[in-house]
Amino acid sequence: MPELPEVETIKRSLESRITGLTFSGVDLFTPKVVRFPEPRDFIGSLTGKKVKRVGRRGKYLLIHLAGNLILAVHLRMTGKLVCLPSGTPPSKHTHAVFKLSNGFELHFSDVRRFGRLALLEAGRLETWPGLKNLGVEPLSEDFTRGFLKKELKRRRTKIKALLLDQTFIAGIGNIYADEALHRARISPEKPAASLTPREVARLYRAVREVLEEAIANRGTTFRDYVDGMGESGTNQESLKVYGREGKPCSGCGYPIRRARLGGRSTYFCPECQKSRPIL
DNA sequence: AAGAAGTCCTGGGCGC
DNA sequence: TGCGCCCAGGACTTCT
């Protein structure tokens, strides 16, 4: 599942390869994956546009183009965006091929067809609902311990649900929410407002460290994820709880447990992540 | 208005 | 071996 570290890795792997190049055409095999504008306009507006730079906001990859346009890509769970030589046959699940001016092309594929593309005017990103309400970037200087403390205090929801809320913090998904909570030794079920100052401080550090380390490891390849060059990441070797049900906790040896929270799997150590009474 | 539930998707793993 | 069932889950929409 491409979360912030995976999208950041894709961004870094693509930017030196496509910046300055021009889109010479688009093959759109699955029009449905284009959320905005109409497929005909999407193709028409993209063709002939030069890539100015590649950016990221939360889990969105943003390809900034000449003409004040942005190609926004969201990979959801199984989406991939890979740079390949021209003429590479599209796979069974390739939905769009963006042809570049240097003999390469970007293949957008997604087994589950959940991923989405949009071509938006810069400065009018609110055309895509998910982008306008995005919360703070957890690796930016706007994300401070004070901010986290203040926000948690007025939220009654479970801390894990809050970490997954993209309008609160942008870019954390199921893997890194579980990993951050384990590192901070906080129960995923604990109400956000009930975290002690020490827990808030631990969570703040844990969120940043978990994401930074995952970027350094070029992302977590749990099932499908690959970067813009088709390379897997290595951060799956560093996971402490996600996908490790029944295996011993790295901290205490107790078996990792899996529970259902907010409709999704939640991995945690029942020993290290006990909800202790507030002293 | 916050929070929960439903929806979209398909490959893979499972039971029989 | 093969069929059917259910699960994985991000984000948007709808309901309470």
Q: Can you tell me the CATH topology of the largest domain?
A: N-terminal domain of MutM-like DNA repair proteins
CATH superfamily descriptor of the largest domain: MutM-like, N-terminal
- How many domains make up the coordinates? 2
Radius of gyration: 20 Å
What is the overall number of helices?
7
CATH architecture assignment of the largest domain: Alpha-Beta Barrel
Principal-axis shape equals globular
In what order do the strands lie side by side in the largest sheet?
2-9-5-4-3
Q: Which structural class fits the helix and strand makeup?
A: alpha+beta
What is the residue-mean pLDDT, rounded to a whole number? 91
What proportion strand? 15-25%
Largest sheet, in brief, is: 5 strands, mixed
Q: How helix-rich are the residues, as a percent range?
A: 25-40%
Task: Report the end-to-end length measured between terminal Cα atoms.
Answer: 38 Å
The counted number of beta strands is 11
Q: Report the uncertain regions.
A: none
Written overview of the protein:
- This protein has two domains: 124 residues, N-terminal domain of MutM-like DNA repair proteins; 124 residues, Helicase, Ruva Protein, domain 3, CATH 1.10.8.50.
- With 279 residues, it is of the alpha+beta class.
- The mean pLDDT is 91.
- The protein is built from seven helices and eleven strands.
- The protein binds a DNA duplex (16 and 16 nucleotides) through loops.
